[in-house]
Every structure is written in structure tokens, then in C-alpha cells.
Amino acid sequence: MIEKLNSKQKEAVTAPSEENILVLAGAGSGKTRVLVHRIIWLLKKIRVSSTSILTLTFSNKAVLEIRRRVNDIINLCQENLIIDTFHGLAYRFLRVHYSEVNLPYNFQILDSEDQKYFIRKAIRDSQLEHKRGLLQKSTEYINKNKEKGIRPKDILKKNRIDSSNMDYFKIYLTYQKICDHSGLVDFPELVLRAYELFLNNSSLLRLYQRRFTHFLIDEFQDTSKLQYKWIRMIFQKSVGITIVGDDDQSIYGWRGANPKNMKYFLRDFPNSTVIRLEQNYRSTKNILKSANALISYNKNRLGKTLWTKIEFGDPIYIYYGNDELDESEYIVKNIIEWNKLGGKFSQCAILYRKKRQSHFLEEALIKYSIPYHIHGDISFFRRQEIKETMSYLRLIFNRKDDESFERIINTPTRGIGKKTISIIRNASKEYSSDMWTTCKKLLNINLLKKNSKTSIKRFLDLINLMDKESESMSIDQKVDYIFRRSGLSKMYENKKNEISRMKIQNISILVHFIKKFCEDRDERTPSELFHSFLSYSILSSSNGIKKYEDKNQDAVNLMTLHASKGLEFPFVLISGMEEGTFPVRTDIEQEIAEERRLAYVGLTRAMKKLILTCVSSRFDRGRKSHNNIPSRFIFEIPQKYVQYVYFKNLN
After folding, report:
1. Quick check: 165 and 200 in contact, CB under 8 A?
2. Is residue 91 within 8 Å of residue 190, measured between CB atoms?
3. Where are the alpha helices (DSSP H) in 183-284?
4. How far is residue 565 CA from its own chain's centroid?
5. Which residues form the UvrD-like helicase C-terminal domain (predicted)?
6. What SS3 state is found at 357?
7. Residue-level pLDDT at 376
């Protein structure tokens, strides 16, 4: 099983099962392979029960990959082997112990879009809608506090309210009251409730401590303060803990990730063994030496130096252009040259710091008729047609679902405008009732125009009719029926374009996916089954369903540097390498360190060829900057590893 592993990988896999180990795994060093073989070693060699092993990672994609690899090697029935995300595990606990944390049985998970709907409602209820820019800042304030385990009562208790955050605090307080009243749980709340579940129930904590004796945690550098406190609480009495991570690839500080947790682990578990995976199987020597030099400028690292047996390869090419047009032309012509020499377009990745940088790149690719695919685009479950169809079903199962009500009351168009919806919303607040009940009341008074009343009554009647006609249908049949009966299908068919045809196809995929999901489920009622699927779809939304994409298409990959983490490409081009763009404008050392880690991630995606581009002039957010300075990260790479290419007309 382990004969193909290198010496350090073997050491990590076969470390005594009762030891705590920190595997410091560099980019391209085979960390997933080590994690998978460690699981198998515990199961087969040490004979640890599958019910006693808990493996956590950060994405559903990683969960599926680990499961697939374990199954490929030992063909294990994995029902009792828990491999999950942090949010997925929290959901498991809350689904079983919902009453202990004051949640209803059918509590609903909010995705980021749902969360913003209820934060908007909290802003209105707090009578702060006249203030601009509150939504984004309030969302950040709420999520950052939850990621630290801080409730509104904690903010009050520690007297952390002043004029700079008073509005955000009011919104947080109101938003949480709305969520608690309606049984709504956002993503940070999942982990916070699970943490509080064990914090306030020592007997339950001991139960799970006895069950789980061996922990394996992937991407440990991405854990937040609260996530670390939660898992530390659970595995305090575990026999053996294996954590895998790379502090040099911690790039999610903006959502609470704390690379210091790796050092805290060594502090809290002082007898832990550190094993460094430094042999890289991905990149050329030139690329690795450049990446090593770059990241060495960061302080307080755990420290490692990547090396490889692969040849030196090409130097890193650095292009300094005049503006985005020059930059895009240079990038695309290099991709064309790669293709002419026998390389595939799909082997090329263009990376950038900000999503809006893709505009000029897309134009250049279109100009030369080069196919491309943008990664990190809207995930399947967040697509408009999916949200609309699911909102009909949500309203059928729960007439009090105001978010779904607002989404579909005028979709397809029924002559119910924004003014009418605003009247319904205000009346709902005045009556202290949901919008469905409010509409029924408004039909009997003269607050609305006759035409609006007629349209609203038709909408209410349609929902009731669809509910009755689909009563005996399975969930997948209901979705198919609702898409047609609601008028959504006809709305898209009438547009007669490729995008609309794809939207209709996506509903077929949704129907098929729900049918597969519902097989072998033990929920008792259609409502329970539907809510289970809703929760699953939201927890999976970061990865989505990719069946609508042609995986065999030879297309250039476009993505942000954040989206590139965990991927590799023979040819990587990183655009926008100038001060103010990458790194973004900041003088805070901690933020610069994270930007540098992001650059390190970008460099280590490349296998054979790497190009970095910067420009003298860039158009961004309606302004054109001039005399831009190339990124400090370019100058942190030793000149012996690079070759400069200058714009021909640039002085």
C-alpha cells in the first residue's frame, strides 16, 4: 500500500496511531495521498473501527475526492466512515440535537444570498434603510463576529459598542432575532451552534469524545478561531490526531481563517510530531526556487523549503505592458503559441486578483476565437432558474417563506410591480405577519389598486392549485411539474436563445439530481425530504453541479488566484502584477503577508511555464491609473530565475 510513497510520506502515514502529528505539506507534495493512506493505515493495519475515525476538510469537492480514493484502494463500505466539511459536520450534529440548541426540527440553512435578504429586512426593521452601504458592511460585521464565536450579548457584555459600529450592532441584533424566530441558520451560525451545543452539554460532549478516537483534518491553515476552539474541545481526549496543512497557503483571512492555529495546535498538544513534506511533484526547479524566495519574505512561518527532481525548465517571463489591451494581447498570443507547439488550451490558466480583471482578457480571447471557461462562476444551485423553481416549491411547503414569496410573486411577470411589493412588505411589518397572510388581508381592503389585487389573487390561487395538484407527486416530479405549470418553462422557451435553452436543460439536471438524492432516504414525509435536499444543496453550493459543463472541451481556464488553490496547470499566466492591484492597496503587514501567500499559491500552480504581467496604466472602478509600479512580489523573486519582456513602445 505504501511502497510508492517517499520517505516523509511514509513517516506521516505510518506514524504511531496514538501520536498527534502535524503534516506540514507544501504545494504539490502529495498531501491528499498522505491523508488517504493514513485513513487506510488506521483502518487496515491498526484495525481502528470506521465509526471511530473522523476526517474533516473544507470543500465538498475534497470530501468526494478523499472518499473516492479510499474506496479505490480498499473498496470499503463507507457508510460509517465520516468524511465531511466543518459545516457539514456541524449540520449533522444540529440535525440530531436540534432541540438542545433551540432550533425547530425543520430549521433552514441560509446561503449567502438568502442571508443578505434577511439582513436587508433587519436593516429595514432597524429603520436604517436610508443609510447607504450598510448591507455589505453589516454582513461582514455579523459573519466576522460569528466566526469568532461572538453573540450580540457578548458585544454588550464587553462594552464593544461605539459610534463606529452602533448601526452594525443594531442590525446584528435584529437579524439574529429574525433568524431565531424563523428557525434560520446561516453558514457561520452552523459551527457556532455546534460549538455551543458541546460547550453547554458536557454529557453529550463526552459521548462524542468516546466515539471519535482518531481525527484527521485537512487544510488546517484555513480553520477559523471558532472552528479551532470547537474541534479542540471535541478531540481533547482523542487517541491520535493528524492535521495536514500549509501555513504558506493560508489565503482566507477575510473569512476568518487563521494560520496561527497550526502553532496553537503545537502549543495545545505539546508532544506533537511535525513532519515536513517538501518534495514537490508538480513544478520545475526554476518555479519552485522562485516561490521559495518569495515566501521567505514572510515572518513567523513554520518553515519549509520545497525541492523537486524535475529539471530547471524555462525562466519566469515578466512582461511590463502599457495597459490592459497590451497585457491581454500578450497573454493571448502566448497561449496561441503554446497551442501551435502542440499544447492544449485547457492546459493554460490565466489567474488574476480581482474578478473584474477578466473583462479585457475575455475580449482578447473572443477576438482570436479561443474557447475559455471562467471558474468560480455562479454555482449550480445559485443560478437564477434553479432559485426561481426551488422558491416555488419552498412556498408550496411553507407559505410563511417571505424570501421565496418576494422572489416569485412577479416571476414570470404578472403586473405586480415594485411599488405593490413595497406596500405588501410595509403592511406585513405593520400586521406582524408573513407576506402571504398579509396579501390575503389586503385583498379585502382598499390599500391596493384593483388590477394589483387581481394579479395577487391569481398568484395566491396558482400556488394553492399547484400544491393540490402535486400533492401525491414525488419531489422530483413536483419540480418538473412546477417548472411547467408556473410559467417559468414558457418564459424561457419564448426567449429562444442559447442561454434560455441552457436554463431549461439545468432544470432537467435538477430533476435528475433530486431523484438520485431521494433514493434510499429515510425521511418520513415529502416536506422532510425536501428540507433535507434544501440543506444539502446549500451545503454543496460552493462546488455546485458541473454536469452542464463539457469537461472534454479544450478551453483556456480563467479564475481568481483564490479559486486556483488546489489546482495545477502546465502553463500559468498571472495578470495585474502591480502595486495597488496585487497586492491590493494596504499598509497592514498582516494583510501584505496574506497577499504574498496568495502570490505563492499562484506561482506554485504552474508545472512547466509561468508568465507574470503588469502594466503602466490600468482602468479600474471608473478610474484610470498611470505610472503603476510593478508588484513588490516581482522584485522578491531573484533575477537569476526570471527573464524580463518589455513593451516595445514603453520608455
Report:
1. no
2. yes
3. 187-199, 202-211, 225-234, 261-268
4. 12
5. 285-566
6. helix
7. 76
Q: Are 294 and 604 in contact (CB under 8 A)?
A: no
Cell of 360: 479585457
Any catalytic annotation for residue 219?
yes
Contact 402, 434 (CB under 8 A): yes
Q: What is the pLDDT of residue 548?
A: 39
Catalytic, out of 32, 209, 279, 437: 32
**Which of 114, 218, 247, 476 does the annotation list as catalytic?**
218
Q: Give the E-state strand segments of 481-605 in sequence order.
A: 556-560, 569-574
User: Which helix or strand (DSSP H or E) is residue 57 part of?
Assistant: strand 53-57
For cell 449550480, name the residue. Answer: 380
DSSP characters over 395-437: HHH-TT-HHHHHHHTTSS--S--HHHHHHHHHHHHHHTS-HHH
- Give the chain's length: 651
The single-letter DSSP state of residue 315 is P
Q: Which residues pair with 320 in a beta bridge?
A: 614, 646
Model confidence pLDDT, tens digit, residues 588-644: 889 999 999 999 999 999 999 999 999 999 987 778 888 899 999 999 999 999 999
Using alpha carbons only, how large is the chain's radius of gyration in Å? Answer: 27
Distance CA 352, CA 334 (A): 17
CATH hierarchy code of domain 108-182: 1.10.10.160
Is residue 632 annotated as part of the catalytic site, yes or no? no
Strand, helix or coil at 276?
strand
Q: Which residues are annotated as a binding site?
A: 25-32
Homologous superfamily, domain 287-376+551-646: P-loop containing nucleotide triphosphate hydrolases (3.40.50.300)
Distance in angstroms (rounded) separating the CA atoms of residues 516 and 525: 17
- Type of residue at 464: N
120 is catalytic: no
Strand-pair category, 618-620 with 240-245 = unpaired
Give the residue among 16, 35, 17 at the shortest CA–CA distance from 25.
Answer: 35
Residue ranges, comma separated, of all CATH 3.40.50.300 domains in the chain are 7-91+193-277, 287-376+551-646
Which of 8, 9, 31, 347 is the catalytic position?
A: 31
How far apart CA 215 and CA 56 sit, in angstroms, is 8
Q: How far apart are CA 107 and CA 220, in angstroms?
A: 29
Q: Quote the pLDDT of residue 544.
A: 41
The domain defined by 381-542 folds into PCRA; domain 4 (1.10.486)
Q: Are 597 and 295 in contact (CB under 8 A)?
A: yes
Q: At 293, which helix (H) or strand (E)?
A: helix 285-295
pLDDT band at 405 (very low <50, low <70, confident <90, very high): very high
Bind-site residues for ATP: 25-32
User: What value does the mean pLDDT take over residues 529-556?
Assistant: 70
Would you say residue 229 has pLDDT above 80? yes
Give pLDDT tens digits for 447-461. Answer: 989 999 999 999 999
Q: What pLDDT does 535 receive?
A: 87
DSSP state of 41: I
590 is catalytic: no
Long-range contacts of 154-163 (CB under 8 A, 24+ apart): none
At 109 the three-state DSSP class reads strand
Residues of the chain with CATH 1.10.486.10: 381-542
Q: Which amino acid is at 350?
A: I
Catalytic site residue from 189, 219, 327, 402? 219
Do 246 and 27 meet the contact criterion of CB atoms below 8 Å apart?
A: yes
Fold for the domain defined by 7-91+193-277: Rossmann fold (3.40.50)
With vertex at residue 72, the alpha carbon angle to CA 68 and CA 77, rounded to the nearest 5 degrees, is 75
